[in-house]
Fold this protein.
Amino acid sequence: MTTITSLQNPRVKNAARLRHRRHREKQLQIVIDGVRELTRAIGAGLPVAEVFVCRELCTGEEAQTLLRMLPDCGAEVLEVTEAVFAKLAYGDRAEGVLAVADMPRPTLDDLVLPSNPLVVVLEGVEKPGNVGAVLRSADGAGADALIVADGRTDLYNPNAIRASLGTIFTMQVCAAGSAPAIEWLRSRRLAVFAARVDGSVSYTEADYRGPTALVLGSEAEGLSATWSGSGITPVRLPMLGVADSLNVSTAAAVLCYEALRQRGSEP
């Protein structure tokens, strides 16, 4: 197999462009950088078009296991030098594999809920790393889906993929507007709990044992007025120091694990 050595190789340049949102949306493709992330994407059946491999960097056991999986995933495998991989890699972590895949485009109608679901909703979140971190907490607590409502970053930003450790491919996720998301939740009879600094109900006093949606707002502005009114319970987390709120990913973890505790779902 020929190794790509040129930084000007058209395939390399095209993959590098996918670090930018406008190119992802134009080409309807995403980049997946990292061993666990790509392993989970392949395991979830995501169509992968090509995988760039720098074998000198694939030193761990998980990387070697992934390399053995690649011939059966349907992707074209392209060997590259360390210099070429450095141009492709997203951030400082270089694990020797980066893939280009078709962009998933799930909608609310694609979400399939069990009889007693737990859904997490993020409204207006700007930082893709926070989206990924919330996904990890939601996955760990056994949530059934995550909805990004009126998101200010694209769902499959490489930072979101990386921060999620690939759980973005194993959980049900979608992007939607806040109003359609509320209508969808109500049509499925989920109790909606909106995290607000001035919420009237302590988060430990709310009942998450039935079909539940936990809604959290952006880092800077919190939830909009859309997530208020009939059928939506505002809940608060205690803030006993000088700060008036937690990072959204931390707040999501607290709420998700309180829901898990109440549901008695821990093995």
About this structure: The first strand starts at residue 3 and ends at 4.
